[in-house]
Each structure stands twice: as structure tokens, then as C-alpha cells.
Amino acid sequence: MKVALFVTCLVDLVVPEVGVAAARVLQRAGHEVVFPEGQTCCGQPAFNSGYREEAAKVLRTTARALADANADAIVAPAGSCTTMLRTFAGGLAGEVPHVWELSEFLSAHGELPEGRLDVRVAYHDSCHMLRELGLSSEPRALLERAGAELVDWDAERCCGFGGTFAVRQPELSVAMADEKLRSLDGAQVLCGADPSCLMHLRGRLRKLGSDVRVAHLAELLEEATR
Amino acid sequence: MTLRERERAALSGDGQLQVALRRSTDAMSSRWAATRAELADPDGLREAARSLRSAAIARLPELLAQLADRVQATGAHVFFAADAEEATSYIAGVADGKKLAVKSKSMVTEEIGLNAALAAVGVEAVETDLGEWVQQLDGEPPAHILGPAMHKTRADWVRVLAREGYEGGDDPDAMTAFARRTLRRKFLEADLGITGVNLAIAETGTVMMVTNEGNGRLTAGTPPVHVAVMGMERVVASWAEADLLLALLSRAGAGVSIGTYVNFITGPRTGCEMHLVIVDNGRSNILGSPSQEALNCIRCGACLNVCPVYRQIGGHAYGDVYSGPIGAVIVPLLREGDPELSHASSLCGACWKACPVAIPLHELLLQGRADHAGSERAIWRAWAAAWSSPRAFALSGAPARMRPPQMLVPPPFREWARGRELPHREGATFRSRWARGEVLE
């Protein structure tokens, strides 16, 4: 299938390696990948702050660029931005194209070779992905197929990122991260499918002096299928 | 204090608050999960409850008129209070000349400040819900809709009860027995009993009240005068509707298949007096607004128990009698309360999934933020102008490459850097790599 990659603002500007991994994984699953360069952001920072017109303006820019790519599917390596386009965009900017979350798409289309990662992974269920998109078995199945051993932890508790919440109320945001990270025992990698949660959790772990690796699902899948 | 200052205060203690919150909320939410699993189709029931609540709120004036008619037909008095002042004056009028009122736990009487109004006319009000009584003795408002003292440890309870003469240890049974002895005298001496109302059934003019301790029954049924106080949204059309909501309220609130003491009160006892006070106090502001569904709430407290924010800061940090996700939604709507409250959420949606009437609380929190947007307009407008241009967007990524010294970090990032390392991009942006053909194999 021809897949348009919606990398999201955070991946584009801060963690491009996640976008590179996502593109390569999609390619290895048998898809043709394109990157519509007119995309920017889903508008969520302004939307979550209560500024809907401003959010709509940015959202429309991205939605138009994605639609104009005329791909068979649009895929994003971020559950939260996928939710923004799928669930919240309708009331904001009218018709927007359907966006797939990466693990959701990989589970439904194409096939990745099995991998031999052989690492113990704690998978973090990001809130939008779990509760709005209902995706929880899909990323886990992909990780297991990649050879990861999933460890039991407080997977479904909110990590405390919450968009601008993380900078409006940093003390609370950090306390929430600590509560979640308290159960992170025995994992070599903390993995998730939302770059924003991972940025927050990585930042906290480094501050605490932990060297547990924090990796996006796309990165682990990319390593497993080299 | 601002919301953030209150949060900081809650977080900077010795950690006992969080220990108590974790223990209590985990116990309550796991009981709801267990009793929910007993139901054949819990989500179907939640949706049914959601639509019956929405339908009741949509015809609220009609149902309230019917309720008032039926209640008056039983010989009880009905009073519609537009605000807290009207409600408390009316009840103070009923209580005038009396000495002692017993109360069973009621959030709406907390909301209208009833105890202070009664004290002003020389009537002592004694709370009879165990947790609420401990809160009253400690001079604190309730910190949770259902478990008002759930943030207190056993040691706190011993300290507070000692003021009433308790000399035992921290054994819950001993403390409960002491409370029972003390409060039993109050029930017998009281001149009036004041209760809340869980639901009011319009078709028969019946007040439904659920308690776990039986204190509601003693409050309504012992003194010669019973005053029932309800928020005006708590009306349902029929017993069938009340039945479904009772099943969900009991499970979501107390984690039991039916509340321990469920009372249906239709009219005054023979020779006694009954008043039903129906309180608006800002609820009309919510009616017809995009947040109308907030009025569907049956005050079970389930959203507090699963909230990762409530779990860290507890009820008092919200600065109102209503706390947790539902408090953060309704307080700014009910009165010109702290609009900042709608930011006391990471929007994780756990509240929505736990709500027995499926209120999309996270979406209402977003609505609350939109309702009060304004002070940051210029910033977001500039942001939108830049990020609706791919070229300007690409340029805005430049700082992610830098490692500026702490003092030169701009404000939002400085807040980030409290407790977290700043992210740092390695190499070029994704779009530059794509343009250079470095992405695909």
C-alpha cells in the first residue's frame, strides 16, 4: 500500500529517529512510504489549552497536506495525535482524512518478519491510545513477535505528561511520573507508542540517574527487523 | 493560593497523604471493578443510564414540577432555592428556636455552607457519617464525595477522636464503637434531621437516600422534623430509572451490589414534619450549555478514585467541596469558581471509563478550558500563524538542537526542566533527512 507518514511535530523537530524507524518498518512490511511535506502538527497543544480556533488553523494545514498525498493510508507513530485527528478533529475542522496509529496499521496490513530482540520490555499504554483508540493488544503483539519479553508493571496508569499540563503543573506532572516509574522493575527498555509520553518519562528517568532505555515502538521494531 | 501552589503544598508533605490516598482510592476502585464484572453487560447499562439521565435533565423543569406536586400531596413542604443564601435562610427558618440538628452526609449542604448558617441562628449541627463527623471535629471540609476523611491515616483518626474523649488505640472497631455511642445520643436528642438526597423520584414524590452506616435512616427517622436537601438535577422520572441508577451508584460508589441502607421516603412520618429543599445555586448555568451532561452526575466518587491527579493531591487541593474530575468540571460552571481547575487534569480519560453514567469528563474538562480561554490568546495566535506554515514550522525546531545554559532557557522549558532533563535532538529534523533522501532504505 502507498502509506503517507504523518510524523507529528514532536518527532519531526525533536526525535526524528522515531520517524526514520517508523518509515523503515512500514517499508519492511511491504509498503511504499511517502512524506507529505506540507504537514506540521495536529493542533493538540492549542486544543488542549482551550484555544480551538488556533488549533483548527494548524490542524487544517496538516489535514490538507495529508489528504493531498492521495495515499492508500495515513499512518502516525503517535496514539495521541492519531486521536486528535480521529476523535476531536471532527468538531473542529470538519472533514479530516482517516489516520491510523502505527501498531494498529501494522497489525492489519502487511507483515513484518519475526525478530530476536531478546530484551525485557515494559510497554506503556498511553492514555489516548488505550482509552480513545482501544489499542492495547496490537503493540504488545508486535513487540512479542519482535522477540521482546513483556514485563508486568503499572502499564495503564497515566504517566503525567498531559500536553501543556507538563509545564503548567510541573511538580504534579513529575509526581505522576514517579508513581508510574516506581513499578518499573526488571525492565531493560521502557517502550511506548507515543513520543510525548516517552519524552517526559525519559526526561524524568535521566534526572533520577536511571539508565533504563526509553524507546519508541517503531525503534524496537526497526531493530528487530534489520 | 493558586491551584499550582495548593498542589505543591499537597506534594511537599511527608508523603502520608499520598499513602492514604493510594490505599483508599485503590480499595474503592478495585471494588467497583469487581462488582462491575458481575454485571452481564456493564457498558450497556452505563449507556442506558447515560441516556436516561440525559433525558431527565432535558426535561428537568417538567420533572421538578411533577416532583414538587407529588411531594406536597404527601403533606411535606417543598422549597425551591435559587442560590445558597435562599436555601440556608429557609432551613435556618425551619430550625429557628431549635437546639440540635443531626445531619447525614450531604455534599449539597456542604456546597451551600449550611452548618455555618445554622450556627448563626444558634443551632448546633452534628455530622453523623463517621468520616464526615471526623472531618467536622477536625475543622476540615470533606476531601472526597464518598469517603470524606479518606485522606486521613488511622493515627489522624485517633488524634481527632481524642478531642471527643476517645482514649483507645487505632483499632477501627474500637473507634467505630466510640463514635456509635457518642452519636447515638445525638440522634435521640436532636430536634431536626437534615439529609441529602441521592435521587428523587418524580412519579411518586419519593426521596431515595443511600448510606453505608445507617445514619441516614436515623437522621431522617428519629427527630420530629426531617429536612431533605437536593441539587435540582437529582430527579428521575420513575422507580424503574431509580432502580438502574441505584445498581450503578452502589457499585461505583461503595463497591457493593446494593447500598447497605437504602431508604425510600414518601412524605412525613405521622405527626412529623418534612421539607424538601431543591437547590439551583448555579446549576441553571450548566443547563443548555455545552457541558450540560455534567448534570447527569450521581455523585458516586468513582472518577476521583481512578484519577491520577486526585491520587497525588487529594480533595482539598481543588479548593472546593467538589473535587476530582467532576469537581474540576462543575466548580467553574456552578459559580465563578477557579477556572484554572479545568487544568487540574492530564486528560487521561480514566474518569470517563469509570463513570457509571459514562459522562465524558475529559471532554468536559477540555470544554472548560475553551470556556475560559483568553489570557493566552496572543501566544496561541502567533503559534498558529507559524505552525500553519511548514517553512516557519521547520525553523521553530532550531532550539531543540541547542543545549542552552539553565538561566537562558525560556519559561515553558524552564518549567519542564524542574525534575526532568530537557529533550535534545540528535542531528537534523525529520523533514531535512527526508529531503536529503536519508530516511528510506
Structure report:
The complex is a heterodimer of chains A (226) and B (441). Chain A has helices at 9-13, 16-28, 44-49, 52-68, 79-88, 90-93, 102-108, 127-132, 137-145, 165-168, 170-181, 195-207, 217-224; strands spanning 2-5, 32-34, 73-76, 99-101, 120-124, 149-150, 189-192, 213-216. By secondary structure, chain A is of the alpha/beta class. In chain A, helix 12 (195-207) links the parallel strand 7 and strand 8. The longest helix of chain A is centred in the first third of the chain and has 17 residues, at 52-68. Chain B has 22 helices and 10 strands. Chain B has helices at residues 3-11, 16-37, 42-58, 60-73, 84-95, 107-111, 114-120, 130-137, 154-162, 172-189, 215-221, 239-254, 283-286, 302-306, 308-313, 324-334, 350-354, 361-371, 377-387, 390-395, 411-416, 430-435; strands spanning 77-81, 100-103, 124-127, 192-195, 199-201, 206-211, 225-231, 235-236, 261-265, 273-279. In chain B, the strands form 2 sheets. Chain B has a 6-stranded parallel β-sheet, sandwiched between helices. In chain B, strands 8-5-6-9 form a 4-stranded mixed β-sheet, sandwiched between helices. The longest helix of chain B has 22 residues, at 16-37. The termini of chain B are far apart. The model of chain B has no long low-confidence stretch (mean pLDDT 95). Classes of the chains: A alpha/beta (226), B alpha/beta (441). At the A-B interface, helix 1, helix 2, helix 3, helix 4 and helix 8 of A face helix 1, helix 15, helix 17, helix 18 and helix 19 of B.
Supply database-style keywords.
heterodimer; A: 226 residues; alpha/beta; Rossmann fold; 4-stranded parallel β-sheet; 13 helices; 8 strands; 50% helix; 13% strand; B: 441 residues; 2 domains; 6-stranded parallel β-sheet; 4-stranded mixed β-sheet
* Class from secondary-structure proportions of chain A: alpha/beta
CATH architecture of the largest domain in chain B: 3-Layer(aba) Sandwich
Instruction: Please tell me the overall pLDDT of chain A.
Output: 96
Strand order of the largest sheet of chain A: 2-1-3-4
Helix content of chain B: 40-55%
What is the CATH topology of the largest domain in chain A? Rossmann fold
Oligomeric state of the chains present here: heterodimer
Specify Rg of chain B, calculated over alpha carbons: 25 Å
CATH superfamily of the largest domain in chain B: NagB/RpiA/CoA transferase-like
Low-confidence stretches of chain A: none
Largest sheet of chain A: 4 strands, parallel
Helix fraction of chain A by DSSP (H/I, runs of at least 4): 40-55%
